TrEMBL record:
It comes from Rhipicephalus microplus (Cattle tick). This is Putative 8-oxoguanine dna glycosylase. GO terms for cellular component: nucleus. Residues 5-120 form the 8-oxoguanine DNA glycosylase N-terminal domain. GO terms for biological process: base-excision repair, AP site formation; nucleotide-excision repair. GO terms for molecular function: 8-oxo-7,8-dihydroguanine DNA N-glycosylase activity; damaged DNA binding; lyase activity. Pfam families: OGG_N. Residues 50-71 are annotated as: Disordered. Keywords: DNA damage, DNA repair, Glycosidase, Hydrolase, Lyase.
Length: 190
């Protein structure tokens, strides 16, 4: 399991920054999170439930030297929580009638700050494709070449592979066999 955020009960689960994240938003708009692992830097083990809240406030907290403050900064950056979403909605509604008609159905929509390689690979996979297939292809990249971060009740979680992990002989053929078609050349060549 990897591509995008998947709902599990009342939480959303995904990976970024070498961690498996479980997120939940409360009625006040605060974002609660648990990091199920942090393999790359040893911040916590899969058994630790470090449930924390990131306030909705636009004021940035001063980061402390702790795993939780580092995790909070990663979340703030990934979701761009410092961006004034209300003013963007106002601006977008003024210039885009389609957005204005649907804005009430999309509360809190944000542009994620994904790793550039992941965004580029998803873009390559998007050529002549639908969202379900794009998500499936990104997930295949993760399971085929990414580092396994956690094996749990919800399945296996993998990090998005690095360019080095995908830069070896035979990757293009493996991607073609996995259904990437003509995109395999561009994924491997990038």
């Amino acid at each position: 399991m990897r591509s995008g955020w998947k709902k599990h009960h009342s939480e959303w689960i995904s990976t970024f920054a070498g961690r498996v994240w479980c997120l939940k938003q409360d009625d006040d708009g605060n974002l609660h999170y648990r990091v199920l692992n942090a393999v790359n830097n040893g911040l916590c083990s899969p058994n630790i439930d470090n449930s924390n809240a990131v306030p909705r406030s636009r004021k940035r907290k001063r980061a402390e030297n702790s795993p939780n403050s580092e995790n909070e900064e990663l979340l703030r950056d990934y979701f761009q929580l410092g961006v004034d979403l209300e003013s963007l909605y106002t601006e977008w509604c003024e210039v885009d009638t389609t957005f204005k008609a649907t804005a009430n159905y999309l509360p809190g929509i944000r542009v994620l700050r994904q790793e550039p390689l992941e965004a580029l690979m998803a873009f390559i996979c998007s050529s002549n494709n639908n969202i379900t297939r794009i998500s499936s292809m990104v997930e295949k990249l993760c399971t085929m070449y990414g580092t396994k971060l956690l094996e749990g009740k919800q399945g296996s979680f993998y990090a998005f592979p690095t360019a080095t992990q995908m830069d070896r002989e035979g990757v293009e053929a493996e991607l073609r066999a996995a259904g990437f078609g003509y995109r395999a050349k561009y994924v491997h060549g990038t």
